[in-house]
Amino acid sequence: MAATAVVGCAPDLGTARAGRALDDTVLPALGDAILPDSLGATTRARSTAAFREWIDAYTPVSEEMHGYGSAEITYTPPDPAPGWNAQLAALELLAQKKHGAGFATLTVTQRRALVQTALARVRGDRLPANPLTSPHVAVALLAHWASSSAASDLAWGASIGRGNCRTLAESPRKPLPAAGGGKS
After folding, report:
1. What's the pTM value of the predicted model, to 2 decimals?
2. Which residue among 122, 169, 173, 183 has its CA within the 20 to 30 Å range from the CA of 85?
3. Domain boundaries, given as residue ranges, for the chain
4. Mean pLDDT, range 13-21, rounded to an integer
5. How many CA atoms lie within 13 A of 99 on its CB side?
């Protein structure tokens, strides 16, 4: 048997990431279709951009934090971006086949119907706590928004700022009412 030695074959993560950015046309149209209307167009666009930035910064299969006294080392999931891009491409293709137009040019109602068709094969009865484990990009986008500080503020109707630091002096104060309910 012949054996081959492979030298210097570590993956070039810069090259591997080059083709992973989520679609610039379909993703914002998806955000408009699935994020709550009550957010307003500006906040939906901001939330979709935050999702894109989050996944662009994601480092797959990196060591996770582990608890004190735990010897088990765990790793983050593999990069979901290529699969999510394939799902965005499938939404675009479905829009072309059903409506003869691109996904982003369809009405919100038509886009929602296409997303509902795509999600019909997705199992699950709730949003995942970790968007990285989402079976579909639409679920991941919604789960990412739902886990945000802004979503908590909207749900509670107050500027809680979950995950944001407050000074010790501010900690006993009741949160202020949410400003404008997130619409813009």
Report:
1. 0.78
2. 183
3. 23-57+77-147, 148-184
4. 53
5. 17
**Measured between alpha carbons, how far is residue 90 from residues 124, 127, 137, 145 in Å?**
20, 21, 11, 22
Q: How far apart are CA 76 and CA 66, in angstroms?
A: 12
- Is pLDDT larger for residue 29 or for residue 159? 29
User: What average pLDDT score do residues 164-178 get?
Assistant: 70
Partners of 158 in the β-ladder: 177
pLDDT of residue 104: 97
Q: What does the pLDDT read at residue 93? A: 97
| Dihedral sign (CA 103, 107, 111, 113) | negative
Going by pLDDT thresholds of 50, 70 and 90, the confidence category of residue 13 is very low
